[in-house]
Amino acid sequence: MTGKIAVGGITRTDDLVLVRVLGASKGHDLSGRALTALGNQNINVTCVTSFLDKDRLNNMCFAVGNDDLDQTLGILQSLEDDIQARSIEYQRRCSAVSIYGPQFSERPSIAGRVFDTIGEAGVEVLMISTSFSTVSFVTHQEQAVQAVTKLNGVFLVP
Q1: 3-class secondary-structure state, position 1
Q2: What is the pTM of this model?
Q3: Would you say 58 and 50 are in contact if contact means Cβ atoms under 8 Å apart?
Q4: Contact predicate 57/26, CB 8 Å
Q5: Which of 80, 67, 66 has its CA nearest to residue 37?
Q6: 2, 49, 65, 133 — which has fewest CB within 10 A?
Q7: Facing residues of 49 across strands?
Q8: Does an H or E element contain 23, and which?
Q9: Last residue of a domain, one of 93, 119, 146
Q10: Cα 101 to Cα 80: distance, rounded to the nearest angstrom
Q11: What pLDDT, on the 0 to 100 scale, is given for residue 1?
């Protein structure tokens, strides 16, 4: 027995750009408008998250491929009058790391183990996105190899 937690796998996607749309006016469907517009232009969005801040303004964060950044920014700027965001920011040289398995929704320790492990390794988390079967995060590209190596030490990957 290794003491490792069995999972379905760990993946890493490099050459991403993290995009943040911050402070969009309340009452506007930021996520719907932005994701539909990006999808209509065949831009694949990775690890999306969205929330309302204390002022009830919409905030969204997502990753796109480096080659899609200029088109993504153009699309977001074309929606500027509709979404009325305070700022649109981006950060290059990011990677998404995902750990997945079919029973994650029934195993509450998975996310904690993921973030304890990478936190102890000094890996900075820029964004978290989860689902019933996947825990994903975005980090600096230069830290992604270290994150995956450390996760492989804790989780049993087929």
Answers
A1: coil
A2: 0.91
A3: yes
A4: yes
A5: 80
A6: 2
A7: 61
A8: strand 9-24
A9: 93
A10: 38
A11: 43
Q: Tokens 């749309």 belong to which residue? A: 21
The number of residues in the chain equals 158
Query: Which residue type sits at 65?
Result: G
DSSP assigned state of 67: G
Q: What's the domain range around 34? A: 16-93
Question: What is the DSSP pairing of strand 134-140 with strand 127-130?
Answer: antiparallel
> Which one-letter DSSP state was computed for residue 50?
E
Q: Which residue has the higher pLDDT, 1 or 115?
A: 115
Q: Which of 46, 71, 75, 54 is nearest to 139 (CA)?
A: 46
E strands, 30-150, in order:
46-52, 58-65, 87-100, 127-130, 134-140
Q: Are residues 82 and 145 in the same domain?
A: no
Other Cβ atoms less than 10 A from the Cβ of 94: the count is 27
pLDDT for position 26: 63
